[in-house]
Amino acid sequence: MTVKIGMIGAGGIARSHINALKKVEQAKIVSIFDLNTAGAQEAAALVGARVAESADALLNPQEIDAVFICVPQFARGELEEIAAKRGIHIFVEKPLGLELAPVRQKEQTIRESGVINAAGYVLRYFDTVQKVKQYLEGKTIHLIQAFRIGGSHPAPWWSQLHMSGGNLGDAVTHQIDMIRYLAGEYKDVTAQFGRNSLQTLKPETTIPDAGAVSFSLQSGAVGTITESCLSTHFSGSEIKFIGADFMVNITGNGRTVSIIDNTQNITITSRQDPSYVQDKAFVEAVASGSRESILCSYADGINTLAFTIAAYQAAEKRSTISL
């Protein structure tokens, strides 16, 4: 079965999906829409797709089986609900939104429609991450240390907290998600955020330039996540899972993992393209009707969003927020 796909958005993340889907035998991108018509035309030319007149026109169940929603989180409106009500299967890029109430309403509509759905937490699809998940099964973690440090997104909207969710919500969401995917659900969170550099360098922005988040998991493990989006001379990411008799370290956003215990000290670097693995899994799910290959559903992605929102609330209220 060929899965006919519509793409809403033609920016960088959409291009990543286009490049991945070109390699998926069952996938055929047939239409693309973006408010930037020139960008949509350029993206469509890569795969021989047509340019849709609007997002609503693209969401035509007579023409597409599935849609990839790759526009920024502030610009999605009711796209997910419209697609679901029309019986179109849905892939939505992370983060799922900026507020929990509308995202939960969308999830209900998606669930009631019965369409196949997935959220774009691509790092779950690394074979290295799957190895770590298998290794940690049944083990007792008592400490998690994570960071993600780098530069800012160039788009003007990204620097506005109410449009992007900040670095924590838009980028560090991958580390937040990987922790809960590998170690279990969060219990509570406290946080502090600062603008020590941005308030001088870019006072028109509203995002923090750094954050320090502490949390506990339902398992009893505790941990921290530190992040910055304004680092010129250092960038990288890391998550350490520490137990009494083991340590697992994940770097490169999941590409490289190290496992150390009493019997082994190994480091593995993945050669996979996780975007290809993720998109292939979604297409195969649509083709077969089986959700087994999808590692993050829309409903699952809501719990990652909930942590981000709770972290900002904790900082604002100077208190611990339960999840």
Please characterize this protein's 3D structure.
By secondary structure, this protein is of the alpha/beta class. It has two domains: 3-122 and 275-296, NAD(P)-binding Rossmann-like Domain (Rossmann fold), CATH 3.40.50; 125-271 and 305-322, Dihydrodipicolinate Reductase, domain 2 (2-Layer Sandwich), CATH 3.30.360. The protein contains twelve helices and 15 strands. A nine-stranded mixed sheet has the order 14-13-12-11-7-10-9-8-15. The longest helix is centred in the C-terminal third of the chain and has 20 residues, at 298-317.
Task: Provide the fold topology.
Blueprint: E1 3-8, H1 12-21, E2 27-33, H2 37-47, E3 50-51, H3 55-58, E4 66-69, H4 79-85, E5 89-92, H5 100-113, E6 117-119, H6 127-136, E7 143-149, H7 161-164, H8 166-170, H9 173-183, E8 186-194, H10 198-201, E9 210-217, E10 222-228, E11 236-243, E12 246-251, E13 256-261, E14 265-269, H11 274-288, H12 298-317, E15 321-322
Parallel strand pairs: 1-2, 1-4, 2-3, 4-5, 5-6, 7-10
Antiparallel strand pairs: 7-11, 8-9, 8-15, 9-10, 11-12, 12-13, 13-14
Pfam families: GFO_IDH_MocA (PF01408), GFO_IDH_MocA_C3 (PF22725)
GO molecular function: nucleotide binding
Organism: Paenibacillus ginsengarvi
Helical coverage, percent range? 25-40%
- N-to-C SSE series? EHEHEHEHEHEHEHHHEHEEEEEEHHE
What is the CATH topology of the largest domain?
Answer: Dihydrodipicolinate Reductase, domain 2
Q: Which secondary-structure class do the elements indicate?
A: alpha/beta
Q: CATH homologous superfamily name of the largest domain?
A: Dihydrodipicolinate Reductase, domain 2
Q: What is the CATH C-level name of the largest domain? A: Alpha Beta
GO molecular function, one term: nucleotide binding
Protein name: Gfo/Idh/MocA family oxidoreductase
InterPro entries: Gfo/Idh/MocA-like_OxRdtase_N, Gfo/Idh/MocA_Oxidoreductase, GFO_IDH_MocA-like_dom, NAD(P)-bd_dom_sf
Organism: Paenibacillus ginsengarvi
